[in-house]
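Suppose you are handed only these lines of text.
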Amino acid sequence: MSITEEIQELKKEKNAVILAHYYVNPEIQEIADYIGDSYYLSKVAVDLKEQTIVFCGVSFMGESAKILNPDKTVLMPDMTADCAMAHMADAKTIQEMREKYEDLAVVCYINSTAELKRHSDVCVTSANAVKIVKALPNENIFFIPDRNLAHFVAEQVPTKNFVYNEGYCPVHEQIQVKEILKEKEFHPQAEILTHPECPQAVREISDYIGSTSGIIAYAGKSECMEFIICTENGVRFELEKQNPQKKFYFTKTEPVCQDMKKITLEKLRNVLKNGENEIQVTEELREESVRPLGRMLELAR
Ligand code: 13P
Ligand code: SF4
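From them, the structure of the protein bound to iron/sulfur cluster can be written out as follows.
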């Protein structure tokens, strides 16, 4: 039996479902039951009939799935797959901002630990951040942890006062304008599609800025046949699958999230087989962190 057949068998036997983010390796995306960006996956996670969720992504994703589904078993193929940005804020600063600003909403990017979510008023993903911030009654917004997404949202919602936090995604932060312009020289007709986790200088030269699924949807609808993609290289798989006639280029230094790439078929098979790597969240932490996640799902609807 091949490893993919083994995974299919184990999935049935264990009443399990596989969720995967677009940044994981193609063979994982191929075998997943649901593939998507962070927002899609958090929505999907609340309506599943299977008892076990195997989350092929990084820890904040599995943790969010567990918080939203306390009665389900959530397994991670690799417990060390983490998002560096998820830790780039702290409760002390949140408290200081709450004391300093009246009428403040702490808006927490879903790429964050449950510990940060519990101190926040609402979660957002890159797909719904603008909509949610617009819907909030508060005048002041402390946006954690990502400064780049925060600035992008602030540009779209100029009526609110933003307070920034110095977190960033090391993968998107490293995408270089000069490398993008080099690709543009080779492919002058190409449109530049960018994730809002990229720095301002990259966003400024882009034709479209949006979440991973936003980028995929834009590339599908655009009349253009060539694109320079400024996000993690795992999206290439879905872009090429949906648009076999179009061409997708990345910068010479390809953006790769090493943590997302830790997920392998072997690790996926192993957790299905032995039930290891189960996400645990204490009831106290769950009760406090489910509130901003639930508010996100409600406001984004
Ligand atoms: P989205 O899934 O919201 O596009 O975010 C990208 C990301 O960095 C996930 O870790
Ligand atoms: Fe975190 Fe960046 Fe990796 Fe996404 S790509 S999981 S934001 S480190």
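What can we learn from it? Residues 23, 58, 83-85, 111, 169-171, 197, 232, 257, 259-260 surround iron/sulfur cluster (ligand 2) (CB under 6 Å). The radius of gyration is 19 Å.
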